[in-house]
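seq/struct pair 1
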Amino acid sequence: MTLFRGMVVLAMATMCSTSIAGPAEPAPPGTHEVSLSRSEIDKALFELEPHAREFPVHFASAQERADMQVKLMQLLKFLDAGVKEYPDDPDILLRDAVGNGFGHNMGCPDCGEKAIAAYERLLKLQPDSAEANWRYGAFLAQTLKHEQSITYLQKAASLGVSDAHYTAAMVFLGLNDQEHAKLELREYVKANPKNKEAKGLLSDIEHGNLHIHIHDGPPPQDPLARP
């Protein structure tokens, strides 16, 4: 089996659908008030997720990419504003981090920094959040911060996220550390015994049949992606 270092594939769970933010206040005269419910935010993120959760991004056509990019930029304007207004709201921070992570993968300027800031703030508020640790670890793995990602992935795994073992294994393979990758895969297979792909990968590592091709590099900046 051959793996290409630099790509980490992760499953993204559907986010919860609850109502957003605090008491409504009238918009100042001469302005247009825009609001989104959390269910609307989650629907937009769910639609974007298959295309932009990892690099390289996946679109059926240039038009589909352009349409999704417009949707993402509109969503990020709302989420970034929400973080400024409610900097200690974990739900808004999580969505802002995930959305900016998508933006980073699509080459949008500053999105990587915004995602990191949102995850860091969220984990200060909720250091034992299994989901935040897992998502942050997976995001860092895609930004070439492989060693740093391991800390968050292993904490997420200790908090019960079995998928974090698989993601950590991919990171260790990217670092050409097959021994630690093997340990993480064993834990993942233990929790997911029916996953044939993971069992096959573990077998390849144990029998020395895995070959890694190094292909590192950050997502290129998209000149059309401007918030």
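seq/struct pair 2
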Amino acid sequence: MTTELTTQTKELLSDLKPKKSLQELLNGVKVQERVDKLLLILLDCSSSMSSRFDFSSLTDIYDNTYTSKMSVSWRILKRDLMPNMQGWTYGVLLFSEFDVYWEVIPTVDTKALITKDTPIPRGMTPMGKALQFAWNWVRSNAKQARFIMLTDGMPNDMSKESILEMARTNSTIPIDTVGIGKGSYDYDPIFLASLSSITGGMFVETETVKELASTILKLAPSNRPLLGTAKE
């Protein structure tokens, strides 16, 4: 009996010992292939995106025609961007309340966005953190990428100059910026234009629903195949 227990104990102890070193385990992990063509949408989800968009075409905030900047943006992404993705991978990052999170994890499935309800705007505008997250993710997971950032406000987590300096470091990835609403009143058009200029992207101001819709269609992969190299 004693001999049997001792043998069992040795077997148990043997099982507890690491079979492989950490490096051996890492070497055995299959590396996921990098995304070839990625369109990353950075969408401002701060509380100001709940305000009315395109006053000229609407009458009463309480009637059924009321549309917020967020609801309009979300519908246009579904209607005008998704049918024109050309098989590219895309992802949607929301930034609000000093937080950044995936609303749509990168995928080629357009239904992933189409079936999603409109996000609820809240909090502040951590634009700098959103861009940092996006750049870091792309460097590790993509070969080529482009960003489209839609916003109606200004960053309140970092200074504009700090964000522009980060953009200079990551200038190989184009950033198309879309200002929603009236420039200078809601957002800083000079800052957004600089962010796009540094990275080889495009800046567009949109004050009406029609302008936003035509802009998103113009920036879709079927009409704008521009991509930049994601460097590690």
